[in-house]
Design a protein that fits this description.
The protein is an alpha+beta fold. It is built from three helices and eleven strands, in the order H-H-H-E-E-E-E-E-E-E-E-E-E-E. The strands form three sheets. A five-stranded antiparallel β-sheet has the order 2-3-4-9-7, with no helix packed on it. The longest helix is centred in the N-terminal third of the chain and has 20 residues, at 2-21. The N and C termini lie far apart (120 Å). The model is unreliable at 1-23, 28-38 and 61-66 (pLDDT under 50).
Length: 204
């Protein structure tokens, strides 16, 4: 009886010493989760690619290039959106090539703004994303949008990648507001409202 009791006590003591003397922490389980691969390859030439995916996978501009000034741009100076579409207000000229059914307003400067668009992106651009507004730069006033019959090339349709085009915006501004103007080119995509560059110049 004593022999069995002593043996049991010795076994209990050995187990206790082994447990107390160990300083090793249990090994952390190894992660079995593997980095997931992209769900799909991004085709930067896909015209239906949304803005967020294009910026993440296709944009090659440096931050400095993407943060170009968007206000107080002179006529003739380009502005480029992050996806590569470049716009330049070429000039604003008093319109005089009237159709026989059109009559000029003697109280207003009626003029045509020409915009050059250069698609340096990797996809076609829907020009319906763009619109133009014109304000007087001296003492206020907002121009009314119109369309003169001859030579009009409104912002509509699509511009293929690598293609440049000159489009027009026809306007009428009361003479009391002067000839100094600010031309704002607005751009709104299906995913986002992008920067609205402002160009300053004079109606010639």
């Amino acid at each position: 009886m004593r022999t069995r009791t002593a043996a049991a006590a010795a076994l209990l003591l050995a187990c206790s010493l082994t447990s107390c003397g160990s300083t090793d922490e249990p090994a952390a389980p190894k992660s079995t989760v593997k980095a997931s691969a992209p769900d799909h390859e991004v085709d930067c030439s896909d015209t239906s690619l949304n803005q967020a995916d294009w910026m993440e996978h296709c944009n090659t501009e440096t931050p400095a290039e993407s943060k170009a000034p968007s206000t107080d741009l002179a006529f003739g100076k380009p502005f480029t959106w992050p996806d590569g579409l470049e716009v330049t207000v070429v000039d604003a000229k008093v319109f005089s090539d009237w159709d026989e059914y059109e009559e000029p307003d003697p109280k207003a400067h009626e003029f045509r703004v020409r915009l050059k668009l250069d698609n340096k992106s990797g996809q076609a651009i829907d020009l319906d994303q763009l619109s133009v507004s014109v304000d007087g730069a001296t003492n206020g006033g907002t121009a009314s949008l119109t369309i003169f019959s001859k030579g009009s090339a409104p912002l509509e349709g699509r511009l293929a990648k690598g293609v440049s085009a000159v489009k027009t915006s026809d306007n009428s501004l009361e003479k009391r507001y002067g000839k100094n103007i600010v031309v704002t080119v607005q751009r709104t995509t299906a995913d986002d409202v992008l920067a609205f560059p402002e160009f300053t110049g004079t109606i010639k």
